[in-house]
Amino acid sequence: MAKKSVVLGVCGGIAAYKALDVVSRLVKQNIEVDVIMTNSATKFVTPLSFQSLSANEVVVDMFNEPKYWEIQHISLAKKADLMVIVPATANVIGKVANGIADDMLSTTIMATKAPVIFAPAMNTNMYENPIVQNNIEKLKSFGYDFIEPCSGRLACGDTGRGKLEDTEVITECILSRLNENKDLKGKKVLVTAGPTIAKLDPVRFITNRSTGKMGYAIAEEARDRGANVVLVSGPTSLKKPYGVNIINVNTNEEMLNVVLENFHDSDIVIKSAAVADYKPKNYSNKKIKKGEGDLNIVFERDSDILKTLGDNKSNQILVGFAAESNDLLENAKEKLKRKNLDYIVANDITSNDTGFATDDNKVTIIGEDKSIVSLEKMCKKSVARELFNIINNKKR
Ligand code: CTP
């Protein structure tokens, strides 16, 4: 498959160095990156750095070389599947909004038919200046996209909005835009991820080893395919995915409530969370003090959220996970039936390089129609892709 092409415009701002990380991340995803720098950008970072990372010649404004000017701004404009400006200064935003094309970058932006995304970064007062805001609104009305800057401490020492969005988020946004498969457009996908906790006293709780990586990958894949995604997440250390409606919960009960609120209008529900089956029978309002001898804690059963959904489902496609240490397929099939699921994703948690806390997973996807697909070991995002391929291929 031909590589996707991103033309990355870099403007003169202190955040220019962060664009290096975006290039590096895109190249790792097998994306062809061509960088255009403004003259001011080269005062902050050298073209050589971008050239080394992208393995492509970097184009800088070269008024003294009009031959290249003519050729390159058109060829890159045509080559681009997507153009992204990181960081976008007030200057470039103002120029494009007002039809000024006086350097390589603004000319290429003007000449391309590819989607263009601006990721602004500048001083807060500049960003909030009504002229800049007006220009942004104008560009949005013409279909240009923006990755809004965040708030934080800026290079000038001020604190406020104007900080370049995290490079990981910018990369995610780019990858999502490049994904042409939008077969989940118009669908609501509800995903649960991570562990839940069962509280013992104000300082202690019981939980499990789930990191949420599988569920987050599912949510991101659904988002990339155009779905409206609600991600109900137990406590994890993962970054909030871009473009996903995330609801954070702690306990089984909290997860149950949020899931039930979102269940009726969901099209696909994927429960990858590792939900605690038991909770301490008695929660102690005060910290439990140590005493002589053993401590016995009595646990009582908590809700089986997935089974509750299975018992109440109408048209939703319901997918569960089965993390097993033995008799993988038998146990998974039994859960599929007992919880009235459409699919179950079975994974063997005894392997060290797949399952909990790893980037890869090796799963078997079993359907209620008795279909069985055993996947090779692959990254969790690819598992998510295969899962949606299977769900979407099934005629209902
Ligand atoms: N699940 C759930 N609520 C629970 C326990 C599990 O919704 N209280 C869901 C999980 O999100 C997963 C599926 O049920 O999609 C299977 O989870 P798993 O822990 O493998 O199975 P259990 O039903 O808890 O059975 P067991 O612990 O006996 O293996």
TrEMBL record:
Q: Which domain of life is it from?
A: Bacteria
Annotated EC? 4.1.1.36, 6.3.2.5
How is this protein annotated for GO cellular component?
phosphopantothenoylcysteine decarboxylase complex
Query: Record keywords: Transport included?
Result: no
- Coiled-coil positions are none
Q: What are the protein's UniProt keywords?
A: Decarboxylase, Flavoprotein, FMN, Ligase, Lyase, Magnesium, Metal-binding, Multifunctional enzyme
Q: In which pathway does it act?
A: Cofactor biosynthesis; coenzyme A biosynthesis; CoA from (R)-pantothenate: step 3/5; Cofactor biosynthesis; coenzyme A biosynthesis; CoA from (R)-pantothenate: step 2/5
Chain's role? Catalyzes two sequential steps in the biosynthesis of coenzyme A. In the first step cysteine is conjugated to 4'-phosphopantothenate to form 4-phosphopantothenoylcysteine. In the second step the latter compound is decarboxylated to form 4'-phosphopantotheine.
Family membership = In the N-terminal section; belongs to the HFCD (homo-oligomeric flavin containing Cys decarboxylase) superfamily.
Q: What is this protein called?
A: Coenzyme A biosynthesis bifunctional protein CoaBC
